[in-house]
Amino acid sequence: MEEFNKRLLSTIIGIPLILTVIYLGGPVYLLFIEIIIVAGLSEFMRLTSITHRGLKIASFLAAILLSLLIYLNNGQNQSFHHNPADLLTTIFLTVIVVIVAFKTNAGISWQQTALAFTGVFYLGWTLSYLLLLREEFPLGREYTYLLFFTIWAVDIGAYVMGKRFGKTKLAPAISPHKSWEGAFSGILAGILAGSLVKVFLLPQKSWLSCLGLILFVTIMAQLSDLAESALKRNFAVKDSGGLIPGHGGILDRFDSFILTGPILYYLIKWML
Q1: Which residues, given as ranges, of the chain have pLDDT below 50?
Q2: 220 near 255, Cβ under 8 Å?
Q3: What percent of the chain is helix, strand and coil (3-state, nearest 5)?
Q4: What whole-number distance in Å separates Cα of residue 58 and Cα of residue 99?
Q5: Smallest Cα–Cα separation from 88: which of 101, 75, 69?
Q6: Domain locations along the chain
Q7: How far apart are CA 178 and CA 226, in angstroms?
Q8: What is the pLDDT of residues 179-211, one digit of tens each?
């Protein structure tokens, strides 16, 4: 019960805050995404035992600059080499390799470097598409609300119904507590929440196109969640962190967005 109360309190505080940030957009939303990227990358480095200070600093800077690159381009089809963030990102990625080349015997290895590169692109690149989704499209705010409300409903539906009715294991080798019953409940809850967003915020869009996006989000969100669960299982960790009471870390709360955001962005860009 105590764990549930912590989870409920974090939800009551967190959801209005995030909704406000999405509504405001611009620099406020940019700062929010940067905080998520940095906090998530910090947890990733702790999970993967990356401790070298120089490697960590270079990785943080590279991830931030990657997201700035996407934000500054903002759908204007500029050539990346005309963007100073691209040059700076390239420099910092080069610095990472140089650090390894000269510090191989000083507590840093190529294995750690490979993991650092993975973290930079796994979080810095993918979560940056949440910026494009919000800022590039005329209905970007509405599409971002669609993404967040649908994923939140999927998480709640899968968690509540999975705990009560879950019997058939979904992926026991990755996440023993997830069930097929919970997964299908999450899909139904996500479709319901996404449909409400469509009715109130996207009435001008067709039901067919919106339902297609919503169904994609409900499925992809759970696959993205499982991918992060596999990462934690590989390093024998239950939660990525303890920043959010009752929910774990930033990676635990935003894992469903990591793979879903970029693909949703391209679906909207190419199909709508």
Answers
A1: 77-81
A2: no
A3: 75, 5, 20
A4: 9
A5: 69
A6: 25-136, 138-272
A7: 9
A8: 999 999 999 999 999 999 999 999 999 999 999
